[in-house]
């Protein structure tokens, strides 16, 4: 069974829970936005199902509810941030905004962040630059979950990356991908729903292929595309981890463990404006031509037209904004527990689906 929940009410619920955990009003509001936006776009693996984990992180000390950001301007177009183990949504947003400001001042903005914490779905931050007509790129290194080709244990994180570019449409071109064959969040979601994993996505603790999400969590994920995904994960490890001075590889702690130890991971963000090259108008025009060419590709199935990255998420947001965000029973039970713990009313339910 699923409940279709009002997006604004779900946001208010998450914001109130974060506030009850000691997060500032501003940071609680953005953190709730990050979770609900993920649910609205259909990325439920990074939505409110993770709210209990972030609240537990705030309680155990993995997340600092009142961080003191330390910025250092390291060059004309670069900056470095020690995020003081802040909630990762805020670390990433601050990096994106500062990179945008650097770009407006100097023509390019690059920010490296240490102690960034878990940032949720990265498309939000890559798309942040497009609000200013810019191209955004963001990547983050994470707790080891990925086994290198030929290996039997994890050494790198799923190390997601995101890229977004402005278009003439009402949505940007928006790429958000994990370098693993399946994200860790999706594995957890499969476990939640009692579903098997696709073949070739994971190995168990003995290094044998598995489709059992529980055994995959005890073992390791496999890189997408074999050696190519592994190379991308390593690239992200260098940009987000080594370059920022953050923890790397097996040094990175697990965000959702109850050990009270912050993960210590890093983030890298880059913003650039088309005006520095072809110009804004020329860029958007050529993006329109590119997207039209892709849309014009004959589809393999008439029921599945060819799209560009970010387009389906945009359509899903429009639909869920009208119809409500689907919340499975297991996640609803978690929210009900948080409601009792924090004295926060449960979100408004628009409909119940059997």
Automatic annotation (TrEMBL):
GO terms for molecular function: oxidoreductase activity. The keyword Nuclease does not apply. It comes from the Bacteria. Keywords: Oxidoreductase. The keyword Ligase does not apply. Belongs to the LDH2/MDH2 oxidoreductase family. This is Malate/lactate/ureidoglycolate dehydrogenase, LDH2 family. It comes from Alicyclobacillus vulcanalis.
């Amino acid at each position: 069974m699923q409940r279709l929940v009002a997006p604004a009410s779900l946001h208010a619920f998450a914001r109130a829970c974060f506030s009850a955990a000691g997060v500032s009003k501003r940071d609680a509001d953005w953190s709730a936005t990050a979770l609900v936006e993920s649910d609205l776009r259909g990325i439920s693996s990074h939505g409110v199902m993770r709210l209990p984990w972030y609240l537990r992180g705030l309680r155990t000390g993995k997340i600092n509810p009142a961080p003191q950001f330390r910025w250092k301007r390291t060059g004309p177009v670069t900056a470095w941030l020690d995020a003081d183990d802040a909630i990762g949504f805020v670390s990433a947003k601050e990096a994106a905004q500062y990179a945008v400001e650097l770009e407006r001042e100097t023509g390019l903005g690059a920010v490296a962040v240490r102690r960034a914490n878990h940032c949720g779905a990265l498309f939000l931050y890559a798309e942040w630059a497009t609000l200013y007509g810019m191209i955004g790129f963001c990547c983050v290194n994470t707790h080891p979950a990925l086994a290198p080709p030929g290996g039997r244990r994890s050494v790198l994180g799923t190390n997601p990356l995101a890229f977004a570019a402005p278009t003439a449409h009402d949505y940007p071109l928006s790429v958000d991908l994990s370098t693993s064959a399946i994200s860790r969040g999706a594995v957890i979601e499969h476990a939640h729903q009692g579903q098997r994993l696709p073949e070739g996505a994971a190995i168990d603790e003995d290094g044998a292929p598995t489709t059992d999400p529980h055994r995959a969590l005890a073992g390791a994920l496999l890189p997408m595309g074999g050696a190519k995904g592994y190379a991308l994960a390593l690239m992200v490890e260098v940009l987000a981890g080594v370059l920022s001075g953050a923890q790397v590889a097996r040094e990175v702690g697990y965000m959702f463990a109850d050990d009270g130890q912050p993960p210590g991971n890093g983030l890298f963000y880059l913003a650039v404006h088309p005006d520095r090259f072809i110009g804004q108008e020329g860029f958007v025009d050529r993006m329109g031509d590119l997207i039209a060419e892709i849309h014009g590709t004959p589809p393999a199935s008439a029921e599945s037209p060819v799209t560009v990255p970010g387009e389906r998420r945009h359509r899903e947001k429009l639909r869920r904004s009208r119809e409500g965000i689907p919340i499975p029973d297991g996640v609803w039970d978690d929210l009900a527990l948080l409601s009792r713990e924090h004295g926060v009313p449960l979100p408004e339910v628009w409909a119940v689906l059997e």
